[in-house]
Amino acid sequence: MSEFGELLRGWRDRLSPVDAGFTATNGRRAPGLRREELAQLAGLSVDYVLRLEQGRARNPSAQVVGALARTLQLSRTERDQLYRSAGLLPPRDGTISTHIPASIQRLAVRLGDVPIGVFTADWTLVWWNAMWCSLNGDPSALPAEQRNLALALFGNNGPALPPMETERGLDVFEASIVADLKDAVSRYPADGQLDRLVQHLRAESKAFAHHWVTEFAARHTSEQKTFHHPDVGEILLDCDVLLAPGADLRMVTYTAATGTTDAGKLDLLRVTCAQTTGAGNHVLPGPRGTRAIDAGR
């Protein structure tokens, strides 16, 4: 077994299935996550995870290592150790991190009955739960580089947002996203991917270019959004953006007041979600969701 495989196996055994979003049962023999559970959450095939653990697959990509580090809820130091054991350089300082601390993942798992998405500083979606899929569509259907809110808002050929209306209006919503990207550029000047995103959108979108040169900076506040959902119709939800300053992450949540019609519609989505996934609190983390791949081929 290689060093990478030993680390993978040890950290898999350490992680509680409950903290990963699974229901613990008395019949479990594995002390932590089962191999198939790790594979599902990281978006890899079970065979590929087995070969990684046994040392038969020796060149995992940075994307695969990042997905495994997030799924295993590693600390930043442990994440860097996993990268080095794979012969890769850890993510550089001065660039946007996709690392999600274990505490943030545990919090999100325990709030699994509401739609939750976790975004990086450039508004790239890196973690979501099953309820997020029920409300917004399944992000795993998109390539990882296209799971970006700014691309959805301003790109001509990128992903589309679900049909919805915002309480303060689309223009204010757009301005707030651009203000966040401007702030990210000032704090992460070495991030080439962020620079390419901004240059692409400035060239492609007149609205983005206008907001970019406007001094007005719209700040995120709690607001209501109306979704036009294909299954439950119009649903009005409170949208909150919770910041994790130390990790520079944004956790977006959608809730409805108890006893309202909208809460009933959210309950209906929850039931549909449970029937589809087999567990209403099952987590679908980025970057590849539940779409299993064999990255070794």
Automatic annotation (TrEMBL):
Enumerate the CDD domains for this protein: HTH_XRE (cd00093)
Q: What Pfam families has UniProt attached to this entry? A: HTH_31, MLTR_LBD
Where in this chain does the record put each HTH cro/C1-type domain? Answer: 28-79
| SMART domains reported in the protein's UniProt record | HTH_XRE
Stored SUPFAM superfamilies: lambda repressor-like DNA-binding domains
Which domain of life does the UniProt lineage start with?
A: Bacteria
A single Gene Ontology MF term assigned here is: DNA binding
- Name of the protein in question: Helix-turn-helix protein
Q: Which organism is it from?
A: Tamaricihabitans halophyticus
